Q: What sequence folds into this?
């Protein structure tokens, strides 16, 4: 994998382990020469993740909607900044740029991005690995919900298995690398200009 998109909070949260995990993941991405694709902000977990990758000499591409630029959350010297018109275009472009996806702790936006990228995988719009970094059990309740939905026959077990998970950033990256498709055929790309 050359680039991984990371979804995470624009806040740091109450547990210092969240920031520590963002820093560890950032160092691992840079050490493995995997570029970061993220939401473009300089605040919260996303800001710490991006600044860590940059400090380690890694490449960071931010994808930010134009209306966010006036909110002082995009002022960070990135390797590359893509400005789009809408949240929908942001997500589609991040999907196109990335070879895999990771969710760190976050709020509604992170949850929505994770759910959508998993849905796109279920619909075979992409075949890229999706990982959940379950720092300090942050996502335990979500994982229980997904398992419950399987028992209720609302999610098929093969789609539940699309979500890779670990509490350890290095283990999660290893799982994603092992799951990354190496075939020459690719599913249809999501065109951000049509969203």
A:
């Amino acid at each position: 994998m050359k680039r991984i998109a990371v979804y995470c909070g624009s806040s740091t949260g109450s547990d210092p382990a969240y920031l520590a995990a963002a820093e560890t993941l950032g160092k691992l991405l840079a050490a493995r020469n995997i570029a970061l694709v993220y939401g473009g902000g300089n605040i919260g977990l996303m800001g710490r993740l991006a600044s860590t990758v940059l400090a380690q000499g890694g490449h960071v591409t931010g994808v930010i909607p134009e209306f966010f630029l006036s909110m002082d959350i995009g002022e960070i010297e990135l390797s590359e900044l893509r400005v789009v018109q809408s949240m929908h275009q942001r997500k589609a472009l991040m999907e196109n740029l990335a070879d895999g996806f990771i969710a760190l702790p976050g709020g509604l936006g992170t949850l929505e991005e994770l759910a959508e990228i998993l849905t796109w995988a279920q619909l075979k719009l992409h075949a890229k690995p999706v990982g959940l970094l379950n720092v300090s059990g942050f996502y335990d309740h979500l994982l229980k919900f997904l398992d419950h939905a399987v028992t209720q026959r609302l999610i098929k077990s093969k789609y539940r298995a699309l979500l890779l998970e670990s509490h350890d950033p290095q283990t999660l990256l290893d799982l994603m690398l092992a799951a990354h498709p190496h075939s020459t055929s690719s599913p249809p790309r999501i065109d951000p200009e049509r969203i």
Observations:
- The first strand starts at residue 3 and ends at 7.
- The helical segments are 16-31, 44-55, 87-97, 108-122, 140-151, 157-160, 169-179.
- Residues 183-187 have pLDDT under 50 and may be disordered.
- Residues 115 and 173 are 19 Å apart (CA to CA).
